[in-house]
Amino acid sequence: MRATESPPRAGGPTGERPAERRSPGPARVALRHRLAERGIDRQLLLLAPAALFVLVLFVYPFGYGVGLSFQPAEGGPFGAYQEFFSDPYQRDTIWTTLKLSLPAALLNVAASVPIAYRMRGRFRGKRLLTTVLVVPITLGTVLTAQGLLNFLGPTGWFNRILLGVGLADEPVRLTNNYWGVFFSIVITGFPFAFLLVLSYLSGIDPSLERAAATLGAGWWQRFRRITLPLLAPGLATTFCLTFVLAFSVFPSAILVGDPAGTTRVISIAAYEAAYVRYDYPMAATIAVLMGLVELLVIAAVLGWRALLYTGSTAGGKG
Amino acid sequence: MSFAELRLEGVTRSFAGHDALTELSLTVRRGEFIALLGPSGCGKSTALNCLAGLLPLTRGSIWSDETRLDTVPAEKRGFGMVFQNYALFPHMSVRRNVAFGLQMRRLPRAEVRRRTEEAIRLVRLEEHAGKLPGQLSGGQQQRVAIARAVVLEPALVLMDEPLSNLDAKLRLEMRTEIRRLHQSLGLTTVYVTHDQEEALSLADRLVVLREGRVQQIGTPEELHTRPANWHVADFMGYRNLLRLRAESGGGPEVVVTGQGMRLVGTPVGPVSAGAEVIAGVRPEDLRITGPDESVPATVEVVEYQGREVAVEARTAEGVQFNLRTDQRPALGDRIGIGVDPARLLVFPLTEPAEQSEQSGQSEQSGQSGDGPAPDVVAGSSTDAPVEAAPDSSAETAVDEPAGGGSR
């Protein structure tokens, strides 16, 4: 287009109008149009405050932290990393955290699917039920921890009932250990998983399952062959989000966990490095490692997601 | 599980206390093409979903010969269904979409493959068999949906407005395609549409529904020439509906007067002298006479429609007439409008209000019920749409050359 316009400009006045008037006009307009077509125009300036915000409050601290992790007091640039991995007390926190967060995220996603599946349609009391399922978001970790201690603790209702009925001879330990933290993560993570899965499910055209039914598919086959494949990319995304939430668990690991032993998660290690030993490079190292582990898990899940069908979930036109 | 006849007995479906479909009784014979016709919200899709097993009945029953069917879940009925939005599985290729039903039947792999390829060939999509539905055009998606439904050789094929998402030209092509498949595969088809032209051209028998109630069941010719009441007439292209009063009654012809005119027509249903009536006539059954004969009127709008023109004329009393003619009247011409008494149908106005209530309709549907002889397949059914087309001018403009060319 532009190439065909430029020759008359170079070759002098060929049209009715003089070349001087004609040539600068199209060129200037063309450049602005070309930029606009790529989404570059003056409205882009509206992004500036947000970009500045991200730069100052995220990129800079992040870069500073990464830089800090390479400046330990002793042992060269990788000294802090070597120290972390050579000390089992530190190193094992990765495994401890994964052992908590992976099953919890998996359970949250898995439990959300059937509940959301049943709640797709319209029915009476749907709003109430959704509210009840989502309320834990508003509670906060501390309140949840307190509730767990009251309910599942050694003298809590759950154990008192077990003892009263005679199902157990001594209180079942469900708090201040792995399970206490696990329950806490599940309770706080479930609403996110549920809301996400519900919205993904609602996006799947209900006539697809009806079509499958007329083709002879029973409910399990309809779910297995139609709904699940269309939902799977959404489940992968949901898993990533709930996993990240669970991986950075901190308060409940202390409140309802066993912070010196079985639930000494990686964020506790970072906290200790920073505010107990004042070893900032080590704390930064642990923070960087947290991010790396999360990235690895997310990359694995998204890699699997890339193999799935991720297009439209509508049944066709209309 | 094929059947000799499929019976719907008093099929009723209500939503939240409101009857969407009331007492639908219908017998579908093997090999028939039945169209359920009516304006949107008339209950035709509800009827289809009840038949497919996607909606439970509120009352009534469905019988396949002597087997009760309405208690059988959709996946066990063995009916094929084509959805309005096609409902193709977006994550499966055309081939896997078509094979889905066969795989659900646990047929041997070789047979699944053979029948899938055969069905794809039938709808001429061989080159697109490996594509996902999202990569196909609307017409191709439509054909996949049809192939997927017929590959199982179902006892009954249900189609829910399958052509409504296509453009006018493609709609005509697919219409012929559907009729061709119906005949060549020996299918039994129940087809839902709001397009009277589509229904007339495709179906052996039509069921006209209004507000969930059957208005008339009959062959295309019966519906075209003898609508049972003025609602059906309105829907079948009788665009000129005049509210008049009967002067005489009881005879084979009836004189109707009012709004400054006096016409002779044929009564449909009980018309007594002095009763309020609705007189209906198609635009193409009106003819232009000299300005002082019959009903004088002034030409207000002339629309070009190929060989003919559609004329809108208004009488001195303000009554508007729509007519089609091969003459070319000019704007503002004074014309006379004449009508053959046999073509002016005079219907009783069941209730004083323009919109008659459901109670009035139930009596009518009782009268017009299941009577008509279903075995007569109207020979003129394929010619019907061109005549019946006056309704929407855009449709007709497209229909005219295509219809003329192919027939």
UniProtKB/TrEMBL annotation, chain A:
- Which InterPro entries does this chain map to? MetI-like (IPR000515), MetI-like_sf (IPR035906)
Keyword match Nucleus: no
Provide the alphabetized UniProt keywords.
Answer: Cell membrane, Membrane, Transmembrane, Transmembrane helix, Transport
TM ranges are: 44-63, 94-116, 128-149, 178-201, 230-250, 282-304
Q: Topology in the membrane?
A: Multi-pass membrane protein
**Which ranges carry the ABC transmembrane type-1 domain?**
94-301
**One Pfam family of this protein, by short name?**
BPD_transp_1
Cellular localization per UniProt: Cell membrane
Question: Member of which family?
Answer: Belongs to the binding-protein-dependent transport system permease family. CysTW subfamily.
> Can you say what this protein is called?
ABC transporter permease
Give the originating organism: Plantactinospora mayteni
From TrEMBL, chain B:
UniProt keyword terms in alphabetical order: ATP-binding, Nucleotide-binding, Transport
SUPFAM superfamilies, A to Z: MOP-like, P-loop containing nucleoside triphosphate hydrolases
Q: Domain named ABC transporter: which ranges?
A: 6-236
The protein's matches in PROSITE patterns, at most eight in alphabetical order, are given as: ABC_TRANSPORTER_1 (PS00211), ABC_TRANSPORTER_2 (PS50893)
Named from the GO MF annotations, one term is: ATP binding
Ranges for region Disordered: 351-407
Q: Coiled coil where?
A: none
Q: Determine the domain of life of the protein's source.
A: Bacteria
- Keyword Transport carried by entry: yes
Pfam family of this protein, just one? ABC_tran
Q: What is this protein called?
A: ABC transporter ATP-binding protein
Q: Could you tell me which species this protein originates from?
A: Plantactinospora mayteni
